[in-house]
Amino acid sequence: MTELYQSQRAMRRMRKAAMDRGVVAILDVGSSKIACLVLRFDGPDRFNGGDGVGSLAGQSSFRVIGAATTRSRGVRFGEIDTMAETERAIRTAVQAAQKMAKLRVDHVIACMSGATPRSYGLNGEIDLAESVVTENDVARVLASCDAPDFGQDREVLHAQPVNFALDHRSGMGDPRGQIGNRLACDMHVLTADATVLQNLLYCIKRCDLELAGLASSAYVSGISSLVEDEQELGAACIDLGGGTTGVSIFIKKHMIFADTVRLGGDHITADISKGLQVPLAQAERIKTFSGGAVATGMDDRDMIEIAGDSGDYERDRRQVSRAELIGIMRPRIEEILEDVRARLDAAGFEHLPSQQIVLTGGGCQIPGLDGLASRILGQQVRLGRPLRVQGLPQAATGSAFSSAVGLCLFAAHPQDEWWDFEMPMERYPARSLRRAVRWFRDNW
Q: Which SUPFAM superfamilies does the entry link to (predicted)?
């Protein structure tokens, strides 16, 4: 636990140093695309670690000066499958963004959607030495949260305090400076597969870059796609990516649950490729321009030309109806949404005061998906787009870039996490997070 605490603090210091120099890169490693944004920080408030990300709309302490995307290679289910191909794709995206920004970046903050995340809710409480809550008391109550044995192959990705209670008053976001006798805390811990994180770290190092931060794609997508009221009252963000679908639940402006469904838009494309017997590239084009989730009476007469280059004239000049295409796509879309519904039910989403569901990611652009999702997931479903960020190119403002934009907000205004507080050495618990130190110890 000591090594984890110190290495995460070192990560935060590296991020602060990069921001003090004024430039840091954002790297979204996805299954369908790899996006890189170069951020320039200006103004007196370059690094603010205590305000969280609750009210970022309208703030402009940074601007995007370089942006590039490339087709992802060597990534399956949000995890690196072929190291050399992924390294080449990351280098391509980073070099293009650096060329646009006309400067070199050394530090990147990355996010990924795989690694089978798991959420844990921890709690702890202490008696206050003095009547006024100090930052040292917050550090002590966080250290008192006793974590379960995550397993030797799991690493802690996020550890955020989500609620404080002082005596009989609960629901506090920040108890510092208030008067009481007993302080309690609820903390959300998100763990991920250690091997997947090690592969990502090694791949970034092979690209001659330093990792200054790491985040879950489901978390940063929720940051950028949920409006302030949704984060406060309770909402779920469903990020339909290429290889995975991320699920995150927010309340009181904090994430309280995250999970991943290992199905995404690439599986819909593969179904079209098999059903229509066309190459994957052509199936992706057909899905993008003619796909849908709900068939209507007109779709039987709406014919789609399938132009091939196999040399067989009859086969290369086929036509299929849009209703047939939707019949191929809909079962897979329903399977993804039903798996998401199972994750939300397991998390107790129906007990939240507001049950808003926001669909984002590249896969949510399929026509009719929101109507189908409202029947499977619940009535309050809307399509979400990321917040507008200063300097972001128009081509990167769509829902497919929710993770990249959320990572910008995560970099500029990180929420308080467990390692942001000066933990007294005598307060380290014997068991908490002991298993989570190996990856950080080996790499920092």
A: Actin-like ATPase domain
